[in-house]
C-alpha cells in the first residue's frame, strides 16, 4: 500500500510517499481502508522531533482517519465490512493514518453518519475529542455560562465554539479580523482580537489551545471559581498562578474514545449542529506541502489528506 513516510525527524521535506505492507488486524481490531486522514499540529511536531515518540523508522504519521472497514480481526464484532467509520486510534502510540490502510482497535472507532463524507469525518476526531473533554470533562460546562475560546478559528477552537454554543453557553472567541465573521457564524456571541483578550470579564471557562503566555493572560478574564483549561501542558507555575487568581487550572491530553465519537459527536453531525470546516484538502503526494502550510499557523479549521 502507499503511505507517507519519514526516515528521520526533520522539516516538512522529509516526508515521502512509498510502499509498505498492509497491516493485519489483531484481536479486537479492524482494518480500515483509509479514505481521508486529518492533519493535526501534533503530526508536524512529531515529524520535527518534538511531538510524541516514534519507536522506529521509517514511520507513518497521523492519527485521524475516516474510511470503510476492510477486514476484522478475531473477536472484533462491533463493525461489519464496508461500514463507514472514523476515529483517532491508538494515540499517543503510532497509528499510521497517512496510508491507504490502517489498523485500529474497534473501541477507538465510531460509525460515520450517513450524510457525512469521509473528508469531514477525518477532520474531527482529535479536535472534537479534545474540545469535548475540555468543555464538559474538565470544564463542567453548563447552559448559561460564559466561555472564552482562544484561537477560535483553529482546529480545536472552531469545534469548541460550536459545542459550547450548542450547549447553551455564551461564547466569546478570539480571532483575527479576517476570521471574525467566520467565528460568529459558528455561534460565538462576541469576537475579540487576540491582543484585546484582557478586556473580556467574568468568564466561567477559558479554553487555551496555545499555552505559554496565553494561559497567564486568560487567568485575568476568568471569574473567581472559574477554570482555565490548557491543551499545551500544565506545570506547578500554572497551578500557582491559578491559585493566586482563585481559579482552577486543568490540562487536556486527548485519548482515543470511540464511544464519545459515536454517542456525542456523531449525533451532532447528523443533526447539522456541528460542522467541521476544512480549509483545504491535499492528495497524499502533497503531504509535505500540507505540513508546511499547517506550520505557518494561519489555517482556518482543518487540513485533510484525501486518499479516496
TrEMBL record:
<dbReference type="InterPro" id="IPR013154">
    <property type="entry name" value="ADH-like_N"/>
</dbReference>
<dbReference type="Pfam" id="PF13602">
    <property type="entry name" value="ADH_zinc_N_2"/>
</dbReference>
<dbReference type="InterPro" id="IPR020843">
    <property type="entry name" value="ER"/>
</dbReference>
<dbReference type="GO" id="GO:0016491">
    <property type="term" value="F:oxidoreductase activity"/>
</dbReference>
<dbReference type="InterPro" id="IPR036291">
    <property type="entry name" value="NAD(P)-bd_dom_sf"/>
</dbReference>
<keyword id="KW-0521">NADP</keyword>
<dbReference type="InterPro" id="IPR011032">
    <property type="entry name" value="GroES-like_sf"/>
</dbReference>
<dbReference type="Pfam" id="PF08240">
    <property type="entry name" value="ADH_N"/>
</dbReference>
<protein>
    <submittedName>
        <fullName>NADP-dependent oxidoreductase</fullName>
    </submittedName>
</protein>
<dbReference type="InterPro" id="IPR051603">
    <property type="entry name" value="Zinc-ADH_QOR/CCCR"/>
</dbReference>
<feature type="domain" description="Enoyl reductase (ER)">
    <location>
        <begin position="10"/>
        <end position="305"/>
    </location>
</feature>
Amino acid at each position: 500500500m502507499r503511505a507517507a513516510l519519514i526516515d528521520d525527524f526533520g522539516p516538512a521535506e522529509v516526508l515521502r510517499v512509498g510502499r509498505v505492507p498492509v497491516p493485519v488486524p489483531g484481536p479486537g481490531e479492524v482494518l480500515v481502508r483509509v479514505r481521508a486522514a486529518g492533519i493535526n499540529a501534533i503530526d508536524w511536531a512529531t515529524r520535527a522531533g518534538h511531538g510524541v515518540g516514534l519507536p522506529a523508522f521509517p514511520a507513518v504519521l497521523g492519527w485521524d482517519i475516516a474510511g470503510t472497514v476492510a477486514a476484522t480481526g478475531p473477536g472484533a464484532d462491533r463493525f461489519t465490512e464496508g461500514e463507514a467509520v472514523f476515529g483517532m486510534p491508538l494515540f499517543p502510540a503510532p497509528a499510521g493514518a497517512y496510508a491507504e490502510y490502517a489498523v485500529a482497535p474497534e473501541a477507538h472507532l465510531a460509525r460515520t453518519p450517513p450524510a457525512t463524507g469521509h473528508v469531514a469525518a477525518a477532520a474531527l476526531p482529535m479536535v472534537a475529542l479534545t474540545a469535548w473533554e475540555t468543555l464538559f470533562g474538565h470544564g463542567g460546562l453548563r447552559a448559561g455560562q460564559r466561555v472564552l475560546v482562544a484561537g477560535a478559528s483553529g482546529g480545536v477552537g472552531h469545534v469548541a465554539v460550536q459545542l459550547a454554543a450548542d450547549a447553551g453557553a455564551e461564547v466569546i472567541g478570539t480571532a483575527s479580523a479576517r476570521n471574525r465573521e467566520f467565528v460568529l457564524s459558528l455561534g460565538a456571541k462576541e469576537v475579540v482580537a487576540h491582543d484585546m483578550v484582557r478586556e473580556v470579564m467574568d468568564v466561567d471557562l477559558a479554553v487555551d489551545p496555545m499555552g505559554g503566555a496565553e494561559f497567564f493572560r486568560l487567568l485575568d478574564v476568568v471569574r473567581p471559581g472559574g477554570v482555565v483549561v490548557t491543551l499545551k501542558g500544565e506545570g506547578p507555575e500554572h497551578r500557582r498562578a491559578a491559585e493566586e487568581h482563585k481559579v482552577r487550572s486543568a490540562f487536556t491530553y486527548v485519548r482515543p474514545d470511540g464511544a464519545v465519537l459515536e454517542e456525542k459527536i456523531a449525533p451532532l453531525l447528523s443533526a447539522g449542529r456541528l460542522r467541521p470546516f476544512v480549509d483545504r484538502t491535499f492528495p497524499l503526494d502533497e503531504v509535505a506541502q500540507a505540513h508546511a502550510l499547517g506550520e505557518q499557523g494561519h489555517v482556518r479549521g482543518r487540513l485533510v489528506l484525501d486518499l479516496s
